[in-house]
Design a protein that fits this description.
Length: 366
């Protein structure tokens, strides 16, 4: 099992923007030094708690400061820009990073982002679907492209302006061929989008704020998508994110992750609780969908979704998760604000150096 990293990122107010951006860079650099396989970074324009406005731009600052980790948008919000921009900028990034690039994609969920861009009343899921089809088509095609698909709002062509003698009218292609890995974040139980991921050979990343019961529903849909095109789904392509804190003692783990007032884990799920309530999506936190929303409490969410303990305890929890949801290829560690930098760094170190060896030793034994 591989180890990945994901951060929204999300920070409490009161710290400077420069300070939190520096901290988020340091977390990815540490993940690289510890051998994490990849690092996914999210983006939002209009949330003061979520400080990265463009994940590709943020990740570009890390290329020269990292050596082996794959840098992944987590995600590029495809409703926010023209697919030709995503295709061209991602291709350039792939070359600068020497192939250490993963394109993570989503429609973009934050309504205030959509409003500021003037697309609040548009079907952003449709924009997303049209955009990703055009991005992959650009990478597969040659100039002058003349790309136009039934029902797709985007058209890409340079037929009126192409000049082959001057090499004008030609979009760049990525270093990785036929294209970089494309990953979609899955945030809903029984997501039909996972079927499409299987059909298009994209790879799913199940969100850290989903109960294992709902995470389990993703894999059958991915298999269905693969089988529909005569392909076989590989569990190695499935990533599952979890909210994890590892400490040297159970007491430190419980206090920092669950009980202390400034716990970044409590802050994170307090924010998620409020946001999902606003969106009418508290069902994500329910074992029984018929249960009233009032039954969804912060303490219950924390108990269900935060894995906290010593390396041995966390390894056992990850193996228990695998037994519940089935085989998967990568556990993705969800990064939090470093309310205590020493404990934040120590958790990542223990995760890489102690938890994963324990997990993989047990998997090899099985």
């Amino acid at each position: 099992m591989k180890l990945g990293y994901f951060a929204m990122p999300l920070h409490p107010l009161g710290r400077t923007w420069q300070e939190t951006l520096t901290e988020d860079r340091e977390a990815v650099i540490l993940a690289d030094q510890l051998g994490f396989n990849d690092a996914f970074i999210g983006e939002h324009l209009t949330d003061e708690h979520e400080n990265v406005t463009n994940s590709l731009l943020f990740l570009a600052t890390l290329i020269s400061d990292t050596k082996q980790i794959k840098l992944a948008t987590g995600t590029t919000n495809l409703s926010h820009q023209h697919p030709a921009l995503v295709a061209a900028n991602s291709a350039m990034f792939d070359h600068i990073a020497n192939g250490r690039f993963i394109l993570g994609v989503s429609p973009g969920a934050l309504a205030s982002d959509a409003e500021v861009l003037g697309i609040l009343d548009e079907d952003r899921n449709k924009i997303f679907a049209d955009s990703i089809d055009m991005i992959t088509a650009i990478w597969e095609s040659e100039a002058p492209y003349d790309l136009s698909f039934p029902g797709n709002q985007f058209e890409v062509s340079t037929s009126r302006t192409i000049n082959r003698e001057l090499s004008m009218g030609i979009l760049p292609k990525p270093l990785q061929q036929p294209r970089p890995e494309i990953v979609g974040t899955v945030v809903a139980p029984f997501s039909k989008g996972v079927i499409v991921m299987g059909q298009k050979d994209f790879h799913p990343l199940s969100a850290n704020f989903l109960l294992p019961k709902w995470v389990k529903t993703h894999w059958p849909n991915y298999v269905q998508g693969k089988e529909s095109i005569g392909a076989v789904a590989d569990p190695a392509d499935w990533r599952i994110a979890r909210t994890i804190f590892v400490a040297d003692t159970p007491e430190i783990a419980e206090e920092y992750a669950l009980t202390r007032e400034d716990s970044p884990y409590r802050f994170y799920y307090s924010q998620m609780h409020k946001k999902m309530s606003l969106l009418g999506r508290l069902g994500l936190f329910k074992e029984d969908q018929a249960a009233p929303d009032e039954d969804v409490t912060l303490d219950q969410i924390m108990s269900d979704l935060v894995i906290a303990g010593t390396p041995e305890q966390v390894a056992a929890s990850i193996l228990e998760l695998r037994s519940e949801v089935g085989d998967f290829g990568e556990i993705v560690y969800a990064g939090m604000d470093w309310a205590d930098e020493t404990l934040g760094r120590r958790s990542m170190e223990l995760m890489a150096n102690e938890v994963m060896p324990l997990v993989n030793a047990e998997l090899e034994r099985l």
